[in-house]
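Notes from the 1:1 (GR / supervisor)

We went over the backlog. Supervisor wanted to see one worked example end to end before approving the batch request, so GR pasted a single chain during the call. The sequence is below; no edits were made to it. Supervisor asked that the structure be written out right there so they could see what the output format looks like.
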Amino acid sequence: MVAVTNVWEWLVLVLLLLKILPVRYCCYNMSFIKVEENSDFPIHNLPYGIFSTPDNPRRRIGVAIGDQILDLGVIKPLFSGPVLSKHQDVFDQPTLNAFMGLGHEAWKEARTVLQKLLSANETTLQEDVGLRSRAFVHQSLAEMHLPAEIGDYTDFYSSRDHATNVGIMFRGKENALMPNWLHLPVGYHGRASSVVVSGTPLRRPMGQIRPDETKPPVYGSCKLLDIELEMAFFVGPGNKLGEPIPIHKAHEHIFGMVLMNDWSARDIQKWEYVPLGPFLGKSFGTTISPWVVPMEALMPFAQPNSVQDPKPLPYLCHDDPYTFDINLFVSVKGETMKEPSTISKSNFKYMYWTMKQQLAHHTVSGCNVRPGDLLASGTISGPDAESFGSMLELSWKGTKTIDLGDGQTRKFLQDGDEVIMTGYCQGKGYRVGFGQCRGKVLPALQ
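Structure output shown during the call:
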């Protein structure tokens, strides 16, 4: 660049640069709502959730911005674009299913409207005191609910590090990965009815276990209760029965992502899972975070996909980056502990199979998915011990202890333990976060 010789040339240069910058950078990067630097919910994020308040118990759709919730039902007349002007009623619904079902163009239009309304130089909402007082609720006053009515829930097994670790434990290093694992995203059908929102306590499950392999099984409470660090995405419009979603259109059906703790009863699972896979060892509870982060907010953090060798079959191939740099953390707080202790630091970028591949594979048989269906990643583990996403791995099948500090250790979860999962993408001066996914272990019913 030619050297600037005086302050006037410098000012002219700055004005020219501002003129050519895209509008979204110069107008929409700051909100009139105060947002702390380390907040999960800046204007770059704008996740969707379902909330209620003591003075209004009706469940309604909101968007998180800073420590506030913007009630979309209150401002629905402002969604006047070509798609949403005909569908403003979706913002009066008690779940996100109808909005999810509108599809990719509606989501983009809603995000554009919201970023404009919340930007620092837009007066429509900012200067209308009456509308603002009705439209905003402080998050501390709200109760969060499941974002959608989940018709079906599928759990994948898409972390190579996790699958390898578990395979080594139970089958040995030579047979760590099953023959199909590198050819398709392995998954199973989970239990949608027991998916709960963050903050819901879960009871230690009862079932058949076989602690002594020389004796018959016994009935009792799970002794090896575990967590699984996962993420999950909600399906948008979905597909008709018999019509697969091609991988080049898969992104149009992926609405957004949440954190997930797919609680696991390892001893129940070990006895029951052959030959049909997990059942009671998983179906007693799955916790998700309440805020659904839209994919458009995550796209700046897209990473190159994992190198896949052997190359998948053509219906699973795509070159565009669709894994994401999402920092993930798991903490455990025992009943006598003052502060939670971090036991895992992982990242979503470690996944082998992408969400596009998962959705394309799920529907290639003709299986239909519907708005609000939930598809989970499987346990997210990285290459290092501190990035393992389950206590099964962190304790290496109970042969090691996990140090929580202050003399507290674990191999698996105890009654009263609270598990807290968090995650965020780090931008320059902001983060796009997911809030918390937390749950507490209650004693088994005897």
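Supervisor's comment: The chain has a mean pLDDT of 94.
Batch request approved.
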